[in-house]
Specification:
This protein is of the alpha+beta class. The protein has one domain: Nuclear Transport Factor 2, Chain: A, CATH 3.10.450.50. Helices cover 41% and strands 22% of the residues.
Length: 132
Amino acid sequence: MKHILLLPLIILNGISMQCLAADKSDTVDFSDPSKVVQEIFTAAKSKNTTRLSSLCDPTGKNDGDTKDICAVNPKHKKWESFLKWFSKGKLKGDAVITGERAKVPFFFGPTGKKTEEMNLVKRDNKWYLSSF
């Protein structure tokens, strides 16, 4: 009888551990501007855009290009363009941080060879997309 009562607890514990692991992998690391930019490429490669909406400056002071990145999803009018320009993207070097601002160099474009810089802003100790 004891074993029968313990089985639901063991199953629930296993489910709880899986949920905790899923939550951890679904979290953006806002402590590093390069990791925030990497989220864009990861989303384009995986076609999973669930985290993109959290990348933009929460004050709304970011530019239109970054607003489009944060809003894109498979039903968005710029979806195909997003995939074309960011699915081959990768970081080009280290972030340059100056106070509450950061610049992250990266490669993107249809061939993944075009260079660009993403500008980020720090709000409440978290880095967010600002412009590019």
